[in-house]
């Protein structure tokens, strides 16, 4: 529950020294998460930040909230456990492209599929930063690194495609430098009930500097990215004269005013459409063929795992003759009864005293 006390981003800052490299994109992400939390009036004590391992995962130390810097790739599993154990908490998972999509790939996709009510902030710098520059599942094809001295020979994951493929209900994207947009998408993610995945294109100045430069530099940004807004025409460009249309099954970039094309021909963004076909196309757009999509790409309501578990526990407790003081039998019995004894107790439907 939030309150109406006026918070500022300082309320979410811990006393720890921030140890990311000067110029690292992580600093901006930290500041914008804190600003979003202040604007959402979240009480620091109702927030839990869970991370795995990586530079990005050091985030938890810098937050004046509850937090757990866990183990590599297991942030989703632990965040899920926290949320199911206490659904009142606002749980934010901080993860990197290696943490979420390599060692943690399995946990990530199932957390998304289950639609666990988490805000998952995925820092995508296309590299393992903490371990000093090995290629990651999002590194571009041919990327040269310490573990791929002759260039990678594999296609990268696209986090949006993976999220939507895992039946994700919410996917948004921003860039570390786009402070206002980051705050907006974090707030949207926080207000969304279910697994909200936010990919942030983040710069690692040391091991993968300027990996997103083609679309993030000031001069070209407006022509090479498109900020999607639900219900608005998909237009972009410095002069707002470019737009997206459908040609057959493909998206096409067009210029408004050329070849008889008017604003009315441009597609309207519907982030809330249950069918994910268009969201997938938008999430997959890559420069130079297309502008890279930013903002909320997909946001559809669905059943939420932790809420369903809560309802199920209530229903089962109400209907079940076995009274276990609210403790799930195998948990309560662990170490106290043998499997046979447990089976006998369970089948006899008697009250079990522990
Ligand atoms: C079980 C295990 N395997 C490997 C590692 C080594 N390790 C630590 S962080 C990391 C990759 C982190 O990359 P990413 O999630 O992209 O975070 P970044 O540092 O780029 O923010 C690896 C491989 C580990 N700590 N634990
Ligand atoms: S190594 Fe890269 S990702 Fe890690 S703190 Fe430094 S700049 Fe940031
Ligand atoms: Mg990384």
From TrEMBL:
Q: Does the keyword Iron belong to this entry?
A: no
- Single GO MF annotation: oxidoreductase activity, acting on the aldehyde or oxo group of donors, iron-sulfur protein as acceptor
Is Oxidoreductase a UniProt keyword of this protein? yes
Which InterPro entries does the UniProt entry name for this protein? Answer: 2-oxoacid:Fd_oxidoreductase, THDP-binding, TPP_enzyme_TPP-bd
UniProt-listed SUPFAM superfamilies: Thiamin diphosphate-binding fold (THDP-binding) (SSF52518)
Q: Which biological process terms from the Gene Ontology are attached to this UniProt entry? A: cellular respiration; small molecule metabolic process
Q: Output the Pfam families linked to this UniProt entry.
A: TPP_enzyme_C
Name of the protein described by the UniProt record: 2-oxoglutarate oxidoreductase, beta subunit
What are the entry keywords? Answer: Oxidoreductase
Q: What is the lineage of its organism?
A: Bacteria, Pseudomonadati, Bacteroidota, Bacteroidia, Marinilabiliales
Task: Please state every residue range assigned to the domain named Thiamine pyrophosphate enzyme TPP-binding.
Answer: 53-200
CDD domains per the UniProt record, alphabetical: TPP_OGFOR
Domain of life per record: Bacteria
The protein's organism comes out as Geofilum rubicundum JCM 15548
């Amino acid at each position: 529950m939030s309150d109406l006390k006026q918070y500022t981003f300082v309320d979410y800052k811990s006393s720890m020294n921030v140890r990311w490299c000067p110029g690292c994109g992580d600093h901006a992400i930290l500041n914008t998460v804190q600003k979003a939390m202040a604007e959402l009036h979240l009480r620091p004590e109702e927030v839990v930040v869970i991370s795995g391992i990586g530079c990005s995962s050091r985030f938890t130390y810098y937050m004046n909230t509850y937090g757990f810097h866990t183990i590599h790739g297991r942030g989703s599993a632990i965040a899920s456990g926290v949320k199911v154990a206490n659904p009142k908490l606002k749980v934010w998972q901080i993860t990197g492209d290696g943490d979420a999509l390599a060692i943690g790939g399995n946990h990530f996709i199932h957390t998304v599929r289950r639609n666990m009510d988490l805000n998952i902030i995925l820092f995508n710098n296309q590299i393992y930063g903490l371990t000093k520059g090995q290629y990651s599942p999002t590194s571009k094809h041919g990327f040269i690194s310490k573990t791929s001295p002759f260039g990678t020979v594999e296609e990268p994951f696209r986090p949006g495609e993976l999220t939507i493929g895992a039946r994700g209900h919410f996917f948004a994207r921003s860039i570390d430098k786009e402070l206002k947009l980051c705050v907006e998408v974090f707030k949207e993610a926080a207000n969304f009930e279910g697994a909200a995945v936010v990919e942030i294109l983040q710069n690692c100045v040391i091991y993968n500097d300027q990996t997103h430069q083609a679309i993030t530099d000031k001069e070209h940004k407006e022509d090479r990215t498109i900020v999607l807004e639900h219900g608005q025409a998909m237009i972009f460009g410095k002069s707002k004269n470019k737009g997206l249309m459908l040609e057959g099954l493909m998206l096409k970039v067009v210029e408004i005013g050329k070849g008889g094309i008017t604003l009315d021909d441009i597609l309207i963004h519907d982030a809330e459409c249950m069918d994910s076909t268009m969201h997938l196309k938008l999430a997959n757009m890559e420069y130079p063929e297309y502008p890279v999509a930013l903002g909320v790409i997909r946001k559809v309501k669905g059943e939420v795992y932790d809420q369903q578990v809560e309802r199920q526990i209530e229903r089962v407790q109400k209907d079940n003759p076995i009274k276990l003081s609210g403790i799930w039998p195998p948990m309560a019995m662990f170490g106290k009864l043998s499997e046979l004894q447990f089976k006998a107790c369970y089948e006899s439907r008697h009250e079990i005293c522990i």
